[in-house]
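Weekly modeling sync, notes
Attendees: S.R. (lead), two postdocs, one rotation student

Agenda item 3: backlog of single-chain predictions. S.R. asked that every request posted to the team notebook include the full sequence so nobody has to chase files. The rotation student volunteered to paste the first one in as an example of the format we agreed on. Action items at the bottom.

Example entry:
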Amino acid sequence: MLEILFGNQNTERILFSLLIKEKCYAKELADRFDSAVYGFQTTLQKLEKAGVLVSFKEGNMRNFQFNPRYPFLTELKQLLTKAYQFLPKNIKEIYYEPVVRKRPRRTGKPIKRFS
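Predicted structure, as returned to the notebook:
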């Protein structure tokens, strides 16, 4: 939808993902969209260099989020919100909406703890 305006599809995907989730990293995006990590890495770096995004290390991952000091952030988010409303429902459900469990956990099933 906005890929023509932004120049490529990865930029659109990144901005919509950030609008919904508030932060993301390249591997997460590549897995979600079944695409190459390199394309997302370069696009994230370009957006950071332009001042639209900022990055920070969290463990061994470099997370990205909108730059709160970006002068057009409010207008950009308004544009993205408006465009997101016109995305087909199936695209929203597949790529952007959070996954919700459809059934409860089986009684007695142990919870895996990651440490």
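Discussion: group reviewed the output briefly. The radius of gyration is 16 Å.
Action items: rotation student to repeat for the remaining queue; S.R. to check formatting next week.
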